[in-house]
Design goal:
462 residues, alpha+beta, Aminopeptidase, Alpha-Beta Plaits, 2 domains, nine-stranded mixed beta sheet, 13 helices, binds ligand BES, binds manganese (II) ion, EC 3.5.1.18
Length: 462
């Protein structure tokens, strides 16, 4: 047997133990956005550092201004590229808790009606299950051959789900240690359950929250109604004015830097046979919204958007209360593409919002850190190697796809460390990431581990 076959056989034999270890990690409540979970975030980082040291990757927990990072290294002394593997150990909050069929931090394997097995827990797909595919691949390699096929460094982050506030200073301060030839990132999805994928673009993001204030206190809506400004109405009109009747965002200059895809890419995507009816049907919808002159996959991958993530103001308790609230709130996020500049988008948004505020009212803004979109070089040699490895495992050509979501660090790898990324992940559309009852297919986990072993093997060949 060649050494890769032996490694793959060991992965198969180890699977139950691999799952036990993943379950240990899934039990840790590492919700990064909520300060109440600061201690479990550290616990997850310590767990991972221990795990890496156990398998022979020298690792430590590094403090930041927020949640700690885990950094590890294993020098093989072999030629070939030095790779940096990235994943995040933090997870999203679990609310609404009543919609979970089980405790989100008590992982279990469930069997679906079609016989397939799923791992159910918060973070199973985003991103603990995915990051453990790499760790378990490295473990099998080290156990079987005593070494890794190339130099490997590791970076696990604990703030991805909260916008990575301490990432820039950390990357800046540890530039030399973290700059490798290539980053391997496991935080994206497959095309479908049979078809592996490599993501070649990610949307960027910038966010803002607004607080519109009118009267100095809540008012009687009869005594003042019709005379005093109502901040709920102001926020509603701000939101309503963001799109025109064709679904275009109205902010001046918003589409500056948006790039149309070359024909070879749109052709490749046409051949994927995407069905928007099925995509939306799965979540109980039918008709795509968005720019009328654009295709469904463009809406998701190559076009910029604005979404209102939350809005509140005024009375929300039982029954009615006749009141004009003193203030109203809304949270917005823009998904960015091409060369759109997050700062410029934010400036345009703020100028627009200010223009809608009556002279006797005010608006405050709470910014969220922005990150530009990312396009990978379609001719990047590592793409070919990734495709070869995935084809061997899944017996199907990998699709080169876009991703609607954002992973801010990938752009920083390029801009700050000059490092390209190979984005390979095994998530599926129905994993319910960020939602109740998040799951990761057992096949994603098992074949994900095998895929990384093959990717390492492939990258080590010249
Ligand atoms: N893993 C996701 C990004 C993702 C989502 C990739 C769907 C592929 C498909 C990541 O953890 C995430 O949720 N990112 C946030 C970033 C934000 C909090 C700064 C996002 O996209 O909303
Ligand atoms: Mn993620
Ligand atoms: Mn996420």
């Amino acid at each position: 047997m060649s050494s890769i076959d032996k490694v793959l056989a060991r992965i198969d034999a180890n699977l139950d133990n691999s799952l036990d270890r993943l379950f240990d990690l899934l039990k840790i409540k590492s919700i990064s956005t909520d300060p109440a979970f600061k201690a479990p975030c550290r616990e997850a980082a310590e767990w991972l550092a221990r795990e890496l040291n156990d398998i022979g990757i020298e690792a430590s927990v590094r403090d930041t201004t927020g949640h700690p990072m885990v950094v590890g290294h294993r020098k093989s002394g072999k030629p070939g590229p030095h790779v940096l593997f990235y994943g995040h150990y933090d997870v999203q909050p679990v609310d609404p808790l009543n919609l979970w069929k089980r405790d989100p931090f008590d992982p279990a394997i469930e069997t679906k009606p079609d016989g397939s097995k799923i791992i159910v827990a918060r973070g199973s797909a985003d991103d603990k299950g995915q990051l453990m595919t790499f760790v378990e691949a490295a473990r099998a390699y080290l156990e079987e051959t005593g070494d890794l096929p190339l130099d490997v460094s590791i970076l696990f982050e604990g703030e991805e789900e909260s916008g990575s506030p301490s990432l820039h200073p950390f990357l800046e301060a540890n530039k030399d240690e973290l700059s490798c030839d290539l980053a391997l990132v496991c935080d994206t999805g497959m095309w479908d359950a049979e078809t592996p994928a490599i993501s070649i673009m990610l949307r960027g993001m910038v966010g803002d929250e607004i607080i519109v204030k009118a009267a100095s206190r809540d008012l009687h809506s009869g005594s003042y109604g019709g005379s005093a400004q109502n901040p709920n109405h102001i926020v509603a009109s701000i939101i309503a004015g963001l799109h025109d009747e064709n679904g275009k965002v109205t902010l001046p200059g918003f589409y500056d830097g948006v790039i149309d895809m070359p024909e070879e890419v749109t052709k490749m995507w046409d051949e994927l046979g995407f069905s928007v009816e099925e995509f939306l049907g799965e979540v109980g919808l039918k008709y795509p919204r968005g720019e009328k002159d654009r295709m469904p996959l463009e809406h998701l991958w190559t076009r910029p958007t604005v979404e209102v993530n939350g809005m509140w103001g005024g009375y929300q308790g039982a029954g009615s209360k006749t009141v004009i609230p003193a203030e109203a709130h809304a949270k917005f996020t823009f998904r960015l593409v091409g060369d759109q500049d997050p700062d410029k988008v934010q400036e345009a948004f703020r100028a627009y919002v200010r223009s809608k505020i009556p002279a006797d009212c005010t608006v405050d803004f709470i910014a969220k850190e922005g990150s530009p979109a990312l396009r990978l070089d379609f001719a990047m040699p590592a793409l070919e190697k990734g495709k070869t490895a995935l084809k061997a495992e899944w017996d199907k050509d990998a699709a080169l796809i876009g991703m609607g979501g954002s992973i801010p660090i990938v752009g920083d790898f390029k801009r700050m460390l000059g490092m390209d990324s190979l984005l390979i992940g095994f998530g599926l559309e129905d994993d319910q990431i960020h939602s109740p009852n998040e799951k990761y297919n057992l096949t994603s986990f098992h074949k994900g581990i095998r895929s990384w072993a093959r990717v390492l093997d492939e990258l080590a060949k010249d």
